[in-house]
Please model this.
Amino acid sequence: MPIVSDTDTDTEPFVSNARPTGPGPRPTDSGPQHTGSSPRLTGSGPQSRGEPDPAVESLPAGSDSGLDSGSGLDSDPATMIDPGSADLIFREAHTPTRFADRPVDEQVLREIHDLVKWAPTSMNTQPMRITLVQGEANLARLLPHLSPGNRAKVAAAPLTVLISADRNFHDQLPIVFPHNPDARRIFDNEVLRERTAVFNTALQLGYFILGARSLGLAVGPMTGLDTAGATGEFFPDGSRQVLAVVTLGYPEPGAHHPRNPRLTYEQVVDVAG
Ligand SMILES: Cc1cc2nc3c(=O)[nH]c(=O)nc-3n(C[C@H](O)[C@H](O)[C@H](O)COP(=O)(O)O)c2cc1C
Model:
C-alpha cells in the first residue's frame, strides 16, 4: 500500500486501505452580536493567501462571518449554537502545525467520547475505535508507517491516537440497535459490512475532531500513512482496519498555516433535475 500523502498542504481525499482485514448542557448564550473571535483561540480568522479568487470562499481577516448576517434562519435561539462556539469549532479552528508544550491527560479523551458518542451513525453502528499510542516503544511501532512528512509531527505531539474501524461492529447490534433483532444478519454481507465500517468511522472521526475542538483542543488528523502496515502492526488479527492517525494537544497561538480557500455555496450545492 503506497503512502498517500506527506505534506502539510495535504489534499488527499479520505483514503482507506483495501485490505479486509449524557449530553452536556445546550448552549443558551445566544446574544445577537457575533463576536468575531473565540475566547480561547487567538489565531487569526479566515484569511486569504495570494490573489483573491472569486470562485472560492475566502474572507479577509476581520470580516464578520457570523450566522447573524443575512441569515435566513428561523430557529429558536435556544436551539442554536452561540457564535463564539461556532468560531471555536469552525471559523477559527485550524489544523495545527505544532501544539503548546502541555500534556493532554487521558481523561480528556473520556470527555471527548462523552460528547461524540451521541453522534449519529447508520443503524447506530458506531464502528470507530480509538487506540492511544503511548510511550516510546509504541510510538516507534507507529512512526515507520507514517509518511515522512508526518513523522516529526506525531513524534512531537502530546497525545496520538489511532482511528480504526471495527470490522466486527455488527456484534454490538443487539445492544445498540435492539429493536431490530435481525440487524446483525444484514452484515453477513462482507462488502456491506466493510463499507459501513469505513464510512461511519470516517463520519465519527469528523465528530471526534469537532468534539475535541469544543473542549479547547487542537486536532491533527492524518491519513498520510501506510494504513495496511499500521493495521498489521497494531491489529494483526485483522479485527480492525486503521484509517487515520490523530494528534491532540492544546493550541499554540498562530501555530498553523494560513487558511486555504473553501469552495463556495454555488460550487457545492445544486438542485437535482
Ligand atoms: C482526514 C484528514 C486527513 C489529513 N491528513 C493529513 C496528513 O496526512 N498530513 C498533514 O499534514 N495534514 C493532514 N490533514 C490536515 C489537512 O490538510 C487540513 O485539515 C486542511 O488543509 C485544512 O487546514 P485548516 O484546518 O488549517 O484550514 C488531514 C486532514 C483530514 C481531515
